[in-house]
Structures are given as C-alpha cells and as structure tokens.
Amino acid sequence: MAGDGHRAAGTPLRAAQDEAGVPPGVWKGRGLAALGLAAGDVVTERQAELLLGEGRHPDADRIERELLAQGKSLEQARRATVLGRPIEHNRSPKTDKAKERTPWLAFDLTFRPPPTAHLALALMDDRHRRVLELCNDIARDKTLVWVGDAVAEIRWKGGGKQRGQVKDGLIVAVFRHYESRATESKPLLHDHAIVSIRARRA
C-alpha cells in the first residue's frame, strides 16, 4: 500500500505513500456498489484493514455505531459487518494447529507493461509518461473485468461442493508503484491489484 519499501511504525498511510512517491490506492471492480463504494474512490488504511485484513465491510465502524445506537448487542453489530464466514470460524479447538491457521482474505495480481515501456517511462517527457500510464490502466482494468466475468467463481457448502459465478463482480484495491523492489530506483511501472475473496453468490 505504501510502495515497495517498509513503512515506519506509526507513519500514516498517506504520509508513507507521499514519502515513497506513489499515489494513493483506488478501488476498482463492479462488486463495489454492494458496499457503497465507487470505482476510483481512494482506499483508506482503515478500509483496507477491515476488508482485506478482517473480511469485514470497509465501512464497518459506522455500521457498528448505528446498530449499537439502535440497541443491538456488540456481537450482533459486529456480525452484521462480517462479509461471509467470520475469520474466527477458521479457529478450531479440535486441531493442534488452530492458532497457526491464517485466513486467506485476498490475493495480489501484479500488472506491468513490457520492459521497453519502462525505458520509455524513464526517458520520455511527462505527456508521454501519462499516455503510458493510461495504456497500463486500460489493460489492467480490462483484465480485471475479464477475470471477474470469465475466471472468478465462488464456492460454498461443505468442501466447496457448490460453485458458481460471482454475482456482482470483484472488489479490488489497486496500488501503483514506479520502482523495482529488487533494484532501488530502477524504473518499473507496475500495479498491485489486491483482489478480495469476499464476494456474493447468485
């Protein structure tokens, strides 16, 4: 979220992104409408923590406050913000490895243009750089639509016996980076598209 370097503890996300020279992340995907988000909205640190870290609604704090004000219990308010199965469900007293089980809540698809584009990005003027970035945006967004329509499927019931298409589309947080992680300051335009595995079935 804050570039390919390490963020110092306590540094706000936006400040870390500014320091790394990367823009804020943005939401993409047709599944956003079901959550009250829109494509192009900035991904806040709290939204990412809730959805990609806990499997909960990105606006869970507000939803919980409203439900508590209506007299719901803390447990009821929290459960109302969980998308799908709570991650606590992965903990089982029947297995010795219960504490080691980590829920899988998202995966990273990395998009980058061919090497010649990186040379052009490093050597060309700002107008041509913007064109290259726009081309990357179009290719990425079309690919994400294809993945949502033709590849992604959702499983449910014991052992994932039932399978089907994702109902409303994917929910993706996209973060743009400009440098290679392996070689500091080497130009490498690429996007990390963090795809939430929380989705709706038909």
Explained architecture:
It is globular and about 60 Å long. Helix content is 35%, strand content 17%. The protein contains 6 helices and 6 strands, in the order αβαααβααββββ. Helix 3 (60-69) packs antiparallel against helix 4. It has helices spanning 13-20, 45-54, 60-69, 74-80, 115-123, 126-151; strands at 26-28, 106-111, 153-156, 162-165, 172-179, 187-196.
Q: What is the structure about, briefly put?
A:
The chain has six helices and six strands. The protein has 202 residues and is an alpha+beta fold. It has a four-stranded antiparallel beta sheet with strand order 1-5-6-2, sandwiched between helices. The chain has a two-stranded antiparallel ribbon with strand order 3-4.
Number of helices: 6
Q: How far is it from the N-terminal to the C-terminal residue, by CA?
A: 31 Å
Helix-strand string: HEHHHEHHEEEE
Q: What are the low-pLDDT stretches, counting only 5+ consecutive residues below 50?
A: none
Q: How would the global form be characterised?
A: globular
Detail the topology: elements first, then pairings:
Layout: H1 13-20, E1 26-28, H2 45-54, H3 60-69, H4 74-80, E2 106-111, H5 115-123, H6 126-151, E3 153-156, E4 162-165, E5 172-179, E6 187-196
Antiparallel strand pairs: 1-5, 2-6, 3-4, 5-6
Helix pairs in contact: 3-4
Feature tags:
202 residues, alpha+beta, two-stranded antiparallel sheet
